[in-house]
Amino acid sequence: MSKRKLVRAIEEQEELEALEALKALDEQAVDPLQSTLDSFFADAWITEILHVVKSGKEATVYCCRAHPSQNVPYLAAKVYRSRNNRGFKNDTVYQEGRTITDQRARRAVKNKSSAGREMQFSMWVSHEFATLTSLHKAGAAVPKPLAHNSNALLMEYLGEQQQPAFSLQSVTLEPEEVYPVFELLMDNIQLWLTQNIIHGDLSAYNILYWQGKVTIIDFPQAVDPRFNSHALSLLTRDIDNICKYMSRYGLKRDAAQIAHRLWQQFKNARL
């Protein structure tokens, strides 16, 4: 074999080996979504990711097939967007009053290091899980939280596989439903206050309606009214959004008056 042919054969062999190596890497490549939900698979919560339910300003929710041990057909996995891609650009309004007990973590967050940003993102997720856990235990109309990791939250799924629960914004209530739904929402807002929680971004878009029942979702930005100077304005805005929605059915209520009454009761420990 000539020197030229030998060199060519070596080059072809190296190219073949390189292609095989690339193929092996492709086969080993991890789906980012699958990787994010790995802990839920490992802990026998879910067995399959079925489809997107909703893609919103701070997260995407997926319908997942539940593990047989869960005794329900589906669970909902909420995968959060990175801080830069979330809708809440002014996080400081919602972060006010939240404490970081670990000194190293607090220092990393304060210095805005990459580790600090990662910790802050993870705390956003754990905050919603803790909030939902507290509210569900108190009897609020929220989905039951089941598990979470640094990037995702797993909770009960509302609806059917191909027809998830509707947002309240997209449905038309029957006349006899209007006042009971309004009262239920106001009762929940009051109940949240007894747990030292204000939603902070409540509207008909993050209230689910399914088979005559309403369930409130999306609590990552929830604030503690004891330690947040924006609490009253956030409470008033939440109530105002509900009153505006209900006004389409002819139900007129003074949001500022309701918020003021609840706030005074909260401050005087009379809820």
Secondary structure elements and pairings:
Blueprint: H1 3-28, H2 32-36, H3 38-42, E1 46-55, E2 59-66, E3 74-80, H4 91-95, H5 103-111, H6 114-138, E4 145-148, E5 152-156, E6 166-167, H7 175-194, E7 207-210, E8 213-216, H8 231-247, H9 255-267
Antiparallel strand pairs: 1-2, 2-3, 3-5, 4-5, 6-7, 7-8
Helix pairs in contact: 5-6, 7-8, 8-9
Short description:
This protein has helices spanning 3-28, 32-36, 38-42, 91-95, 103-111, 114-138, 175-194, 231-247, 255-267; strands at 46-55, 59-66, 74-80, 145-148, 152-156, 166-167, 207-210, 213-216. It is α+β, with helices and mostly antiparallel strands and 271 residues long. The protein folds into two domains: 32-156, Phosphorylase Kinase, domain 1 (2-Layer Sandwich); 166-267, Transferase(Phosphotransferase) domain 1 (Transferase(Phosphotransferase), domain 1, Orthogonal Bundle), CATH 1.10.510.
Explained architecture:
It catalyses: L-seryl-[protein] + ATP = O-phospho-L-seryl-[protein] + ADP + H(+); L-threonyl-[protein] + ATP = O-phospho-L-threonyl-[protein] + ADP + H(+). Keywords: ATP-binding, Kinase, Magnesium, Metal-binding, Nucleotide-binding, Serine/threonine-protein kinase, Transferase. This is non-specific serine/threonine protein kinase. It is a single chain. This protein has about 270 residues and is of the alpha+beta class. The protein folds into two domains: about 30-155, Phosphorylase Kinase, domain 1, CATH 3.30.200; about 165-265, Orthogonal Bundle (Transferase(Phosphotransferase), domain 1). It has nine helices and eight strands. The strands form two sheets. It has a five-stranded antiparallel beta sheet with strand order 1-2-3-5-4. Strand 2 and strand 3 (about 75-80) form a beta hairpin. Helix 5 crosses helix 6 (about 115-140), helix 7 (about 175-195) runs antiparallel to helix 8 (about 230-245) and helix 8 packs antiparallel against helix 9. The longest helix is centred in the N-terminal third of the chain and has 26 residues, at about 5-30.
